[in-house]
Amino acid sequence: MTVFLDFEKPVAEMEGKIEELRHLSSKGDLNIVEEISRLQSKVDRMLRQIYANLTPWQKVQVARHPNRPQFFDYLNSIVTDFLPLAGDRCFAEDQAIIGGLGKIGSQSVMVIGQQKGNDLETRVKHNFGMAKPEGYRKAVRLMEMADRFNLPIVTFIDTAGAYPGIDAEERGQAEAIAKSIESCLRVKVPLISIIIGEGGSGGAIAIAAANAVLMLENSVYSVISPEGCASILWRSATKASEAADAQKLTAQDLYGLGIIDKILPEPVGGAHREPKVAIDAVTREIEHYISTFSKMDGEALLRHRYDKFLAMGSRGMN
């Protein structure tokens, strides 16, 4: 079932009319194919206009769309012969971060991604994509394994942030995130990260300190959620829209600031409307970057990553 966002109401009404006409046409009462085609063209124009002028807060809503492709959708479409690897070898298995070995084309890779879940049962199972320390320690274990066997690492980012519960803090959430970032910066294999929805705070950068950080056109990447930011600055989450404007969290903002390396276009109306088109575009970019970075030796990859992130800091001081 199509879920429409608030700013898509005109499109929802028009698509409702199209469905009614199709129902009448299927009964053979009227020959209304031309009318349906005309209305569909109008819907396409409306979507192009709406999505060409999205505000930052509207992009946050698109990034969180319940029908937006999640990590498992990319995994099942892109990766073959996937072998999941579970557990951090310290405490437990975390279902918010999933990882394992597989192939993209003919290239063996280590794949790590954050899965939010599609319904109540799976969202609870995956903790809404918010990992605990064991999730990040598992990511460290898998990155070190990839480094040992000279396998490129591909990570998929989609989380509101790391889990903020007391139990996570008791088990060293901050230390686990820091170690995961350190592992990203230390591996001597290609590391490619794609932000497919939300890239929230340290929970995102923990597996996204990569040689190439790519963002889907309507994804977001920020140090805190707009609601969290608004609660701190204005003492009210109702100011989330204003916070989103100030945070520079869109792909376009971040590309302009040099934080990310490339913006990946989405189908008109967002990735949730045509998931396969979005997934195919991501696949092509992953293959391109794996091919590019595989020509570099370990020390060159390490230096590339160091220089990239150090340059961000120097730009901020100028």
Please give a structural write-up.
By secondary structure, the chain is of the alpha/beta class. The chain folds into 2 domains: 6-53; 60-317, 2-enoyl-CoA Hydratase, Chain A, domain 1 (Alpha-Beta Complex). Helix content is 50%, strand content 15%. The chain is built from 14 helices and 8 strands. The protein is globular and about 65 Å long.
Biggest sheet features: 8 strands, mixed
CATH class label of the largest domain: Alpha Beta
Percent of sequence in beta strands? 15-25%
Radius of gyration: 21 Å
Question: What is the global morphology?
Answer: globular
Number of domains: 2
Oligomer designation: single chain
- The portion of residues assigned to helices is 40-55%
CATH homologous superfamily descriptor of the largest domain = 2-enoyl-CoA Hydratase, Chain A, domain 1
Strands, count:
8
What would the average pLDDT be, to the nearest integer? Answer: 91
Query: First CA to last CA: what distance?
Result: 49 Å
- What CATH calls the topology of the largest domain is 2-enoyl-CoA Hydratase, Chain A, domain 1
- The CATH architecture of the largest domain would be Alpha-Beta Complex
- The low-confidence parts are none
Q: What is the helix tally?
A: 14
Question: What's the gist of this structure?
Answer:
This protein is α/β, with parallel strands linked by helices and 318 residues long.
